[in-house]
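Hey there, shall we discuss this one?
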Amino acid sequence: MKLTPLSLVLVLAATVTACQKDGPSAATAPADTGATAAEAAEVADPMAEVVWDDSAAPVAGTRVEINPDPTPFCEGSRQVVEVEWDVAAAEPVHLQLWVEGAPGRRKLWTATKALTDSKRTGPWATEGMRFIALDAKSKRVINSATVTAADCP
């Protein structure tokens, strides 16, 4: 059997996805996002430098929110949060949500066609972590939100 470059990318993407745990994804969109194989193949190489245009962020009429906000870290430095987004006003072609743990340290969390939705993290969200909505086609940052810590009693 002869493998084409696209076949190889899809096999590698499936292998990486199968090996991942609850943390943010570093590969392609999960199967339940509705992304086609061609769209999944367009996802940036997780090892490559991701260059974005954030000059217009936040785009008017869009939002990314963390719940709860602020997040209580009183019982541990890692918590589950829910990330809600509404980016329909930006009309992104290919929506991706990225996690930035420290400036420049980014990982793809999910790719989706849902322009208004929410998703829960695993128990890995930390104070200062930033969630970024990106139009993957244009590399334009649409909006973002940062996890803030609640005061502990």
Remarks:
- The chain has two helices and seven strands.
- The helical segments are 5-19, 37-41.
